[in-house]
From TrEMBL:
<feature type="transmembrane region" description="Helical">
    <location>
        <begin position="163"/>
        <end position="186"/>
    </location>
</feature>
<keyword id="KW-0472">Membrane</keyword>
<feature type="transmembrane region" description="Helical">
    <location>
        <begin position="128"/>
        <end position="151"/>
    </location>
</feature>
<dbReference type="Pfam" id="PF01545">
    <property type="entry name" value="Cation_efflux"/>
</dbReference>
<feature type="transmembrane region" description="Helical">
    <location>
        <begin position="67"/>
        <end position="92"/>
    </location>
</feature>
<feature type="region of interest" description="Disordered">
    <location>
        <begin position="1"/>
        <end position="58"/>
    </location>
</feature>
<dbReference type="Pfam" id="PF16916">
    <property type="entry name" value="ZT_dimer"/>
</dbReference>
<protein>
    <submittedName>
        <fullName>Cation transporter</fullName>
    </submittedName>
</protein>
<feature type="transmembrane region" description="Helical">
    <location>
        <begin position="98"/>
        <end position="116"/>
    </location>
</feature>
<keyword id="KW-0813">Transport</keyword>
<dbReference type="InterPro" id="IPR002524">
    <property type="entry name" value="Cation_efflux"/>
</dbReference>
<dbReference type="InterPro" id="IPR027469">
    <property type="entry name" value="Cation_efflux_TMD_sf"/>
</dbReference>
<dbReference type="InterPro" id="IPR036837">
    <property type="entry name" value="Cation_efflux_CTD_sf"/>
</dbReference>
<dbReference type="InterPro" id="IPR027470">
    <property type="entry name" value="Cation_efflux_CTD"/>
</dbReference>
<keyword id="KW-0406">Ion transport</keyword>
<feature type="transmembrane region" description="Helical">
    <location>
        <begin position="206"/>
        <end position="227"/>
    </location>
</feature>
<keyword id="KW-0812">Transmembrane</keyword>
Length: 346
């Protein structure tokens, strides 16, 4: 492809993230950096990287997750053995719920470790997507656990077995205390407010606490009134909690893998805000997607009227994306009015 004009690249670096990489390649694609452009126009590219500050929170997140994982795993084993010993499906179902939460906690730990690995030429975003793939697998496993619990509960409705309500309550009470301890560990050690992974793990632990409360309630009904149907009823309620969590996880991960626009971002508002920049006549090829939880990216082309300072347009666009929409990983191409892309994705 003949080159008529060498494009200038505006590179804005705001902080650094483990995925930072050098744009030193040379090719004829319109999104390249520091290369000869094939169109008869001058394009300006802005690439803004902004990293999250992990220096303080990363170690705290790891400690909080590790402590919560140890507590959750221990109580999961206790409830499973206790459920078999007392013949309580409610305890077994709650231990299944805790298994899913232990997997979620482990997933967050692995994701933190993998996120620290630098990007490579073959994996330019690093290993952030591992978190999404593992979360999808975890969500599918949750569906299987919930299906088994419902199947077993239906069988017990027809012929409710006798359950040791007193022992069941004692084990469930220990589980409740452990869940509250795990939640406290995540709150004190980790960044529950700002870190999506930690907040998700925290909500999982709170869901476990609700399951333990349900098991205690079933134990009271069986010990006080001999109403053994309470055990499968509570089990179904716990399975519904699991299904709700599973559906949320699967839906979110599939949306991310399909490169869907993040739910926290209004694409129409982003396009409108960029169009309002002085000198911009058209916004096209606007794509907003999620790399992993808490790491969104955006790329777009801005066509100008050719009258103003394109570098000023670029700086204003990057500022809007970061400050108004919190899109800190941005690639913006500013184009002159004579470019013709033909069919563009709008």
């Amino acid at each position: 492809m003949p080159s008529t004009r060498k494009e200038r690249t505006a590179m804005t670096s705001r902080g650094s993230r483990d995925h930072d990489h050098e744009h030193d390649h040379t090719h004829d694609h319109a999104h390249g950096h520091a290369h000869f452009h094939g169109h008869h126009h001058q394009a300006h590219h802005g690439h803004s990287h902004h990293g999250h500050s992990h220096e303080v929170s990363r170690e705290g997140n790891r400690k909080g997750l590790t402590l919560a994982l140890l507590i959750t795993g221990g109580i999961m084993v206790l409830e499973f053995i206790g459920g078999i010993a007392t013949n309580s499906l409610a305890l077994i179902s709650d231990s299944g719920h805790m298994l899913s939460d232990a997997a979620a906690l482990l997933l967050s730990l692995v994701a933190i470790r993998l996120a620290a690995r630098p990007a490579s030429h073959s994996k330019t975003y690093g290993f952030y997507r591992f978190e999404i793939l593992a979360a999808l697998f975890n969500g599918l496993v949750l569906f299987a656990i919930a299906a088994y619990i419902v199947w077993e509960a239906v069988r017990r409705f027809a012929e409710p077995p006798e359950v040791a309500g007193g022992a069941m309550m004692a084990i469930a009470a220990v589980g409740l205390l452990a869940n509250l301890a795990s939640a406290l560990a995540l709150m004190r050690q980790g960044d529950v407010k700002n870190n999506v992974n930690l907040r998700s793990a925290y909500l999982h632990v709170l869901g476990d606490a609700l399951g333990s409360v349900g098991a205690i309630a079933a134990g009271v009904l069986m010990a006080a009134f001999g109403w053994y149907a309470a055990d499968p009823i509570v089990s179904v309620l716990v399975s519904l909690l699991i299904l709700r969590s599973a559906w949320g996880v699967v839906r979110h991960t599939l949306h991310v893998l399909m490169e869907g626009t993040p739910l926290s971002v209004d694409r129409a508002r982003v396009q409108e805000a960029l169009t309002e920049i002085e000198g911009v006549t058209d916004v096209h090829d606007l794509h907003i997607w999620t790399i992993t939880s808490g790491f969104d990216a955006v790329s777009c082309h801005l066509r100008t009227d050719g009258q103003g300072d394109t570098q000023a347009v670029l700086r204003q666009a990057l500022k809007i994306l970061e400050e108004r929409f919190f899109l800190k990983h941005a690639t913006v191409q500013v184009e002159s009015p004579d470019i013709d892309h033909g069919d563009t994705c709008r």
